Automatic annotation (TrEMBL):
SUPFAM superfamilies tied to this protein: Acyl-CoA N-acyltransferases (Nat)
Organism of origin: Nitrospirillum iridis
Taxonomic path: Bacteria, Pseudomonadati, Pseudomonadota, Alphaproteobacteria, Rhodospirillales
Protein keywords: Transferase
Protein name: RimJ/RimL family protein N-acetyltransferase
Cited CDD domains: NAT_SF
C-alpha cells in the first residue's frame, strides 16, 4: 500500500453513537495523547491469543506486542492522513477504538477493537452499522480488512453484509459493504 497523498485526503468524521448504544451508556470520542496506555492495553488484548502457543513468558509477550503496537500506530498515522481516530467509551471509560478513513472511493474501517469484557454484546456491530449509515450518506461503500485466521470477526462482518472482494493475498482479506441501490 502506498502512502496517502495530499490529494487523496478528505476530512473523516466519526459517526454519531447509535441511540441503542447511547442508552446503554456507550459513547465515541476523539482519541487524545492520554489514550496511549489504554490503546496499548487494548492492542495486547486483541493479539494475545495469537501468542498462546509461543513458549515465551507473559512479560516477553507483552513486550513484543507493545513493540507491534508502536509499529501499527506509526503505520496507521503515516498511511491514513485525515483519518478519524475514535475511542469507544462505556460510562466515560475507554473500552475500544474505531478508526475510519474516507478515501476517494470508500469509507475504510481501519480498525475496530474492543476489550474482551465488551465483546459479543452487539457494540462492534452497532458501531459498524453507524459507519454503514455514514458511508451511505456519502454515497460510498465501506471496506475493512480482516486477518485470515480471525474467523469470529469474519463471521460478524459477513453477517453485517460485508463480502470478500479482491484476491486473497497475505494474511488479511479485504471485505466490502455496498449501500443498497436506490
Amino acid at each position: 500500500m502506498s502512502a496517502t497523498t495530499v490529494s487523496d485526503v478528505r476530512a473523516t468524521v466519526l459517526p454519531p453513537v447509535p441511540p441503542d448504544l447511547a442508552a446503554r451508556g456507550l459513547g465515541l470520542r476523539p482519541e487524545t495523547a492520554q489514550d496511549q496506555d489504554f490503546l496499548r492495553t487494548l492492542y495486547v488484548s486483541v493479539r494475545w491469543e495469537e501468542l498462546a502457543a509461543a513458549e515465551w513468558s507473559d512479560d516477553a509477550k507483552v513486550g513484543f506486542l507493545s513493540q507491534q503496537f508502536i509499529f501499527q500506530t506509526r503505520h496507521y498515522k503515516t498511511h491514513y492522513a485525515g483519518a478519524a481516530w475514535g475511542i469507544i467509551t462505556d460510562g466515560g471509560d475507554p473500552v475500544g477504538r474505531l478508526y475510519l478513513h474516507q478515501g476517494p472511493s470508500d469509507l475504510r474501517i481501519i480498525d475496530i477493537s474492543l476489550l474482551p469484557s465488551h465483546r459479543g454484546q452487539g457494540i462492534g456491530a452497532g458501531f459498524i452499522r453507524a459507519v454503514f449509515a455514514q458511508g451511505a450518506v456519502a454515497g460510498t461503500g465501506v471496506s475493512i480488512h480482516v486477518e485470515m485466521f480471525n474467523h469470529a470477526a469474519r463471521r460478524l462482518y459477513e453477517r453485517l453484509g460485508f463480502v470478500q472482494t479482491g484476491d486473497d493475498k497475505g494474511v488479511h482479506r479485504r471485505m466490502d459493504w455496498f449501500p443498497p441501490s436506490t
